[in-house]
Amino acid sequence: MPTSTEWIAHYRENARFQRVDWGLTPDITPDKLRIIQRSLQAWQLGETSDGKNLIRAAGKYAAKTDDPAYVRAIELFIKEEQKHGGNLGRYLDKIGVPRVQKDWGDTLFRKVRYFNTNMEMWTLPVIVVESTAQVFYQALKDATGCPLLRQICTDILIDEAYHITFQVERMSTIYQTKSPTGRALRRPLYRYFFWAVATLVWVAHRRLFKAGGNTFEGYCRKMHYKYHKTLGRVTKQTTGSLNSHKPDVCVPIYASPFCAPPFPPGPSAISAGSTRTTTS
After folding, report:
1. What Å distances lie between residue 258 and 69, 76, 131, 265, CA to CA?
2. How far is CA 51 from the centre of its chain?
3. 87, 166, 201, 266: which could join 13 in a potential S-S bond, CB 3.0 to 4.6 Å?
4. Is residue 117 a contact partner of residue 55, using CB atoms and an 8 Å limit?
5. Does residue 226 contact residue 131 with C-beta atoms inside 8 Å?
């Protein structure tokens, strides 16, 4: 499993790549915009957290585990999430749609996190939300023919694949420190939480999911796959079994100099508008 220092190197390397051509003019019909607008606004807001509480939790965890570099890795992870919010916001600005300041889903998620300084309870919802995000952004990408929006979505999907790997590795480390009884209690709790959140996300954004070609049954199949690639993998693993884990993404990528197996290679500058990422 890569160290926090290696993850820092990954995030710094990834920041070098510009996958969105902002010289493109948005091309979206009013009918398609009506379908995606509310969901686009909500997810843009959700990607803009300052991450202060997460950084505080990471600091406590890093001190406890003698891994000071982990805090910087979390800061760079947050910075990538903020980049997503910035890009989505810039797109909203270009098409003349206001950014929202409140959304019930974002408010609920922030309230749950606000007083939490336990790294396990931070990592769990992040894994679940980012798993749903992979399906969401693929649906958003497929719901319109707008090349600019497709590039933004592809950039996010590439980043999210590595984010999930980063978080799953940490959850694995945390899970392995628990007693056999503690692990047995967590297995159903992780599963129920995953499906509760996944169901809420479908209910809130079903119009967009359907516009992107998803039925509820199809969405559940994708989320079933996501569960077994993330929390299911964590709870069924033996020590060291995550060493072969690769990001759940199918895009052209080139190995970065700092990478060595099993650490995932760094992303390339790609023609994102024509590249499809895997969500099923």
Report:
1. 16, 17, 26, 9
2. 14
3. 266
4. no
5. yes
- For residues 89 and 148, is the Cβ–Cβ distance under 8 A? no
Calpha distance 202→265 (Å, rounded): 32
Token couple for 105? 């889903």
Please classify residue 87 by burial: count the beta carbons closer than 10 Å to its beta carbon, then call 0-12 exposed, 13-18 middle and 19+ buried: buried
| pLDDT tens for each residue of 11-42 | 999 999 999 999 999 999 999 999 999 999 99
Give, to the nearest 10 degrees, the angle between helix 30-46 and helix 104-114: 10
Q: What span, in angstroms and rounded, lies between the C-alpha atoms of 142 and 105?
A: 23
Ordered domains of the chain (ranges, CATH): 4-274 (1.10.620.20)
CA distance 22 to 130: 25
CB 213 within 8 A of CB 35: no
Which CA distances in Å does 226 have to 128, 251, 253, 280?
A: 9, 18, 21, 8
d(CA 48, CA 109): 13
Compute how many other C-beta atoms are within 10 angstroms of the C-beta atom of residue 236. Answer: 10
Q: Which residues contact 123 (CB under 8 A, 6 or more apart)?
A: 167, 170, 171, 174
CA distance 90 to 244: 37
pLDDT in tens, 94-118: 999 999 987 666 566 666 655 566 8
Q: How many helices (H) and strands (E) does the chain have?
A: 10, 0
